[in-house]
Write a structure and sequence with these properties.
- The protein is mainly alpha-helical.
- The two termini are about 30 Å apart.
C-alpha cells in the first residue's frame, strides 16, 4: 500500500530506487528465513540512496552479518546478540529509508503544487 502511495506522484528514478530498497528490506524482515545472502540485496540500493543514515544502517547490518557468519558459535551469547543487533539495524534502516522517501515525496508534491 505504501508503494502505491509513493507511485502516485511524478516519476523519479532516485525515489524509485529508494522504494525498491525499502521493499527489499521489508521482504527480508517479513521472510521466515533471513540468511546472510539476503542482506546483500539492499546494498546496491543503499549505495544509491541520498540518505547517509540508510547507507550506514545497511553497512552496519552487512558487517554484523559477516561477523556472525564468520564466527559461527551458536552456544555463545554474543553470537545471538549479533543477530539481534543486525535485525534491529535492519528495522531501523527500513524505517529511516521509508521516512526519507516520504520526506522526498512531500518535497516533490510541494514543488509540483508551486510550479
Amino acid at each position: 500500500l505504501y508503494a502505491l502511495r509513493v507511485l502516485r506522484t511524478r516519476f523519479d528514478w532516485r525515489r524509485a530506487l529508494d522504494l525498491v530498497g525499502v521493499l527489499a528490506i521489508a521482504l527480508m524482515l517479513l521472510s521466515p528465513l533471513l540468511s546472510a545472502q539476503f542482506v546483500i540485496w539492499a546494498t546496491p540500493f543503499a549505495a544509491l540512496s541520498s540518505s547517509s543514515k540508510v547507507r550506514w544502517g545497511v553497512a552496519a547490518a552487512a558487517i554484523l552479518t559477516g561477523v556472525f557468519v564468520t564466527f559461527w558459535f551458536m552456544e555463545s551469547w554474543w553470537w545471538w546478540a549479533t543477530i539481534v543487533g543486525r535485525n534491529l539495524f535492519l528495522v531501523w534502516t527500513g524505517w529511516a529509508w521509508a521516512r526519507h522517501l516520504t520526506r522526498s515525496e512531500s518535497k516533490v508534491a510541494a514543488e509540483t503544487a508551486s510550479g
